[in-house]
Please model this.
Amino acid sequence: LSDIDGAALAHDLGAPLPITVCGLANISGFITLQGRFSGNVDEGTVEMVEQAPTDFGPISPAISSDTDGAYSLIVPYMAGGSSYQIRARHGLYLDNAKLINVVGDLANENTQLWGGDANNSGNISIADLSCIGGALGQSPVITVCGGPPPVPTGNPDINADGVVSIRDLSIAGGNLYKISPQPW
Model:
């Protein structure tokens, strides 16, 4: 810095300016659905929610592939890492969630969602078993499972094979009383 005559002006910052180093990381993996085979996955979502107060802002959720459940998210992180909650969602299944510290790319962040939430209420209860049991043998599936508003409607065909069968009932029965979110 100088004055109008070119003489240097004294300046003192008092301390070095802080520099924050940030990066972008690719978080990827596969979401499998209990009771469904590859190619019968349907799209779901994977969300990353920042836990630390760095305030990167919201991150758009990734849509998992409808053929193999693959997903990929690009998220910002600070030097030393940034804390996020990763959450996988799919209708008729319980959410899975966990906390992760992002310090770079993370591959193979895989999880399996537990099925049987026929009314999409966030828990698997007698109401889900009743809906599935009451629709046994339906093909095509015409029953809609739902609770009181604001619970969205669901479907008794948990494994999406086009018929409500004992397989759907056994998936839900095996997960009775589980609630969202489940561990990743």
